[in-house]
Amino acid sequence: MGTSYSSTHPGHVRQNNEDSFYANDKRGLWIVCDGMGGHQEGNFASHLVTDIFEKMQMFGTFEERIEAIISQIYNIHLILKKKAQMAGTDAVIGTTIVLLYIEGEKGISIHAGDSRCYLLRDERLSLVTVDHAKEIKTHAGMRKVLTNALSAPGELSLEVKKFRVYKRDVYLLCTDGLYDNLTTPFIQKMLGSLSLATAIDSLMLSVLSKKADDNLTAVIVEI
After folding, report:
1. How far apart are alpha carbons 46 and 144 in whole angstroms?
2. N or C: which end of the chain has fewer CB within 10 A?
3. Over the stretch 90-114, which tens digit does the pLDDT of each residue have?
4. What are the φ/ψ torsions at residue 211 (nearest 5 degrees)?
């Protein structure tokens, strides 16, 4: 299966960490979430995802497990929507999600939002996911806005990608607090040239040596 290494940090600006992650090598299931809506709401939303999947049991074939995972994500989306409605019309209680599930040579990524899944294969780094976000112009300059996430306005649309998994594949799941502050060549170098236990420390410390104005979370999975 896979061996994973995980790390999260609130950064230097925000007092609370709205990120959450779940890593279970035996189950072949890894999740990273970036909560939205302020420290209490964002923290609740991201941890609701990881807490539910930690307790969730999965049975049946690979395809049946995927269906159960997707169904559970939509259930969480509805729970967060209802909580936001009860809190008031302007309340935001949501989260991004990027999920990696692997069974043997079969793998799948499921995501909504701008948390990412990278793949390092044969010394080449590529993106498995495509950000659900866009840049908009405001009086304060350009700002990134999510176009899709759990409990975000509009309909939830999960992006699901199935792929074959190879030995020595390395996957990186992370929030924008990590990748926004690192270059793609640097990420590739760290994942390809170090032990992954050292690599995750190097990635985190590289961001933390700068302004680190957002929460940052990373999960590295080595097949």
Report:
1. 19
2. N
3. 788 999 999 999 999 999 999 999 9
4. -70, -30
Question: Can you tell me the distance from the alpha carbon of 210 to that of 218, in angstroms, rounded to the nearest whole number?
Answer: 17
Q: Quick one: which H or E segment has residue 36? A: strand 29-36
Tokens of 206: 């590289």
Nearest to 151 by CA among 93, 200, 73: 93
Neighbouring CB atoms inside 10 A of 186's CB total 13
Torsion of CA 114, 136, 85, 91, to 10 degrees: 100
- What is the mean pLDDT of the segment spanning 25-49? 93
Q: For the whole model, what pTM was predicted?
A: 0.95
Beta bridge partners of 160: 110
Separation of alpha carbons 201 and 176, rounded Å: 17
Write down the residue that tokens 């279970």 correspond to. 24
The SS3 of residue 208 is helix
CA distance 61 to 111: 21
